Amino acid sequence: MIFLMFLVMVFILFLVGLTVYPVETNSLQPYEKNKFSYDQSIDHIKRDIANDPDNIADYGHSILMTHGAKCERAAVFYHGYTNCPRQYEELAKIFFDKGYNVYVPRVPYNGVNDLYTKEIGKLTISDIKKVCDTSVDVACGLGDKVTVLGLSMGGVMSAYNAQFRDDVDKAVVIVPSFGWYFLPGVIKPLVNLSFLFPNQFLWWDPIKKDNRKCPYSMYHHFSTHGMAHILRLGLSVLRAAKKTAPLTKRIVVITNDMDIAVDAKSTEKLVKSWKKSDASIDRYRFSKDLDMEHDIIDPLHPYAKPEIVYDKLLEYVD
Q: Which of 35, 45, 283, 291 is deepest in the core (most CB within 10 A)?
């Protein structure tokens, strides 16, 4: 009995330690912005694609669609964790046909042709942050007004730019992965726990494993350290939003009531913080009646309803 009480005490102290141990986010600020002309932006993106590793699948590279010159509007789309730019192939075309220059950057270690790859375990917060920073830099060379839009990990990236970039005209944050659905509001302990142990590769669906129905471009595993880096970047946004107004003045936040993957509580806290400023915040929820799961962008998911989702996005963005 005494030994059992000792184990309980140790476990409680362990949980307290995970909660109180600091997670540093003050250093996660955008770097000094670079100014690109249209030609410089095109050269930067093409060079980046040309330097992709040999193991990137044909469908995994960054997507660039332009009208041959700088336009009034440019859009940057951020893909989800373990997916790739192909996720936005259809939506990018729709925006392009609306007159936008469109850029869908590949986040490092995503888009590899091996769906069981351990490459995703190399992803760091610096990799994600660099894509956030440079994508807006080059987008400013593609259009006079820049819209950033992202889902899940990409939603965190869009929220990050909404908070810290004053050269973004509009940010669209879609089902951002600030935390886990089953542990609402629990972020710092998850980050600390993830880095306490060696990097693990877990099935997205531990029951169906690689028999789950998903897009052909999406990995079957995710990295615990990679997930923690995403959570830490999101935590930097949540903390900053409590203290300062977002530098992007027009923001759209979209969630899905059927989503049981990400933490909606933290998203609502962010919206509440942003609404205290003079930013224009539009809020929309897709209802449970639509029976969609987490990824409401990729048309290859069996539950996808792109005709509904894309129309709603155009309503808020265009």
A: 45
